[in-house]
Amino acid sequence: MTQVSDRELTAVTSNPLAMDGIEFIEYSTSKPQALGQVLEMMGFRPIARHRSREVLLYRQGDMNVIVNAHAGGQPRGVQPAETPVIAAIALRVRDAATAYRYAIDRGAWIVPFQVEVMELNIPAIHSVGASRVYFVDRYREFSIYDVDFTLNPGVDPHPPALTGLHWFGIVQYIGSDRMAEWIEFYTELFGFSVLADEQRYGILPKGRILESPCHSFHLQLIDPKPGIFDPEPVELLQRVGLGTPDVLKTVAALRQRGVAFVESKGVHSEARGALTQSYLGGVMFELVHDERA
Amino acid sequence: MNARDSGTDAVVNAPLSNILDFGMDTISLAGTLPAKLAAVRDAGFSQIMLSARDVVGHLDGLESAAHAVRASGLRVTGFQVLRDFEGLSGHLHEYKVDVAKSMLEMCAAVGAKVLLVCSSTSTHATDDPDAMARDLRKLAMLALPLGIKVAYEGLSWGRTINEFTTAWDIVQRAGAPNLGIGIDSFHIFAAKTPLDEIDTLDPEKIFLVQLADFMWQEVRTVEERIATARHFRVFPGEGVHSSALADLVVRLDRIGYRGDYSFEVFNDDYQQMPLPTVATRARRSAIWLGEDVLRRAVPLPNRIRLRRADA
Which of the residues A164, A174, B115, B214 has the least number of beta carbons within 10 Å of its own beta carbon? Predict the structure, then answer.
């Protein structure tokens, strides 16, 4: 084997799905307007509505957030409740069908399709708790929203990000003694890699951090606190992390918009990061210092 | 009240003897699932190994079966059994993946954390260890989001894998964190696997130990093994392999195994005896193993296990 093909082979195996970042994060809630207000406080703008379901698209910069109030009625799916939960991560991949087949061949559970006439069929697999991972390959020349969503009248479809905000990552809570297993899940199915323990970001440096194979976002896996007797710790996607080149500037800008931050002895806004207060019973955002914008 | 709260009742109510590490298996008992749960609990056990048949055959359906299990306060040792899974290809593999998914969904519904998988007996399966490892790795991935571990057991009449030593080799090849081995004393004694081999195992990767004695010294043919395994097993201490069983349990304890022991006793006679009578025999066996063989101290009431600080 020549040196060139060795190099190509490594590239293929280290990013097996040709992943290219996050297309959207989906929240499920029965109170979409309330969550919409929180998202607008965070700098997101309402962009479009789904043609056939109670599903809304919010956006700032390169970040898309889907707010889903549609009760899917599927087993093992998130049912909209008052407290919003992160129901899905959509990954940009080179070819959604190939990525889907790759994951299924390695033991992923498929989510059965439920599409209406002329709607896009976005392949998905089950992930932690009731959440899902979608594979999206239409994000360059045209987008999935062009097909299924109707633009809000008079809206700028591409509002700039507030102070350079961008996806930094997602925090997942895991059960006791489950670290090796969840690391396996993300490395085997998606090609994530585990960062060295000393490589840390933000102000809540717990658990282990995984980096996406496209090097554009992170997953932070957090175990239950030791010594606390909790027979069945819940596993879920707990919060999203937003990267910003200047945390304190972003904190100031968000405060002006009405966002409150946790300011305690242990956790407070500083140059490395900040944590918003919890809204609607459980929605919070972490800010992380990250130069990319 | 959640399952774990009520589970402590069973422990507290148990007479003072250390049988917490031992459980019965529903296959030893006749009757309905609720009757089996009650008999096992009344005999002072805190855990039970369930079979898919218990759940599927429950009159009021899966949800009701799962509720009955939770309401019993018994912890579920594991769920059995997925057969002939590994080494198949094409449509046979796809078919078995569907069967596995169904088993895993039932396993999750009844709160079982371990799915038992027996090595393949199928003549359609390959004997390529890497292919078997790949399939088990996929099975472990299917189990992973559900929080289920997969225990792979070498059946003594398995076509390629028929001892715990070779099962361990496949588990190591697969290298999945939630895939380990299941050990069944019957198959060790039937295949005459040297007990010294226990020392080669990683205790953290033994996900289940099943114990049974039997009445014959030797089971030479495959047919004899199958017949004995399915009809003539007895509880530990009741057959002619008691000292070997004690040796096995002591060796497992010595390498650091701290998981569950389940009595995998298929016995046609026990199937036509009153449930409390059979459960009492199981209890006697558990006391022998817990107090005489492992010399465990009697537990304090209301014992709870705190999570390790280094977890």
Answer: A164
Q: Tell me if residue B152 falls in helix, strand or coil.
A: strand
Q: What is the pLDDT of residues A213-222, one digit of tens each?
A: 999 999 999 9
Which pLDDT tens digit goes with each residue over B207-248? 999 999 998 888 888 888 888 888 889 999 999 999 999 999
- Inter-chain residue contact B142 with A188, CB threshold 8 Å: no
Q: Do B145 and A109 touch (CB under 8 A)?
A: yes
* Bridge partners, A90 (sequence order): A24, A134
Predicted TM-score (pTM) of this structure: 0.91
Please indicate if any CB of chain A lies within 8 Å of the CB of B10. Answer: no
Tell me the three state secondary structure of residue A57. strand
Q: Give how far B249 is from chain A: nearest CA, Å.
A: 25
- 8 Å CB contact between B262 and B49: yes
Q: What are phi and psi of B232, to 5 degrees?
A: -125, 30
User: DSSP labels for A147-171?
Assistant: HHEEEPTT--SSPPPGGG-EEEEEE
Handedness of CA A186, A187, A190, A192 (dihedral sign): positive
CATH number of A162-289: 3.10.180.10
Dihedral angle of Cα A144, A148, A154, A155, to the nearest 10 degrees: -40
The owner of tokens 């951090």 is A209
> ipTM score here?
0.91
CATH 3.10.180.10 domain locations along chain A: 3-151, 162-289
List all residues 6 or more positions away from B138 whose beta carbon is below 8 Å from its beta carbon. A105, A106, A107, B97
Q: Which CATH number fits domain B3-293: 3.20.20.140, 1.10.3720.10, 3.20.20.150, 3.10.20.600?
A: 3.20.20.150
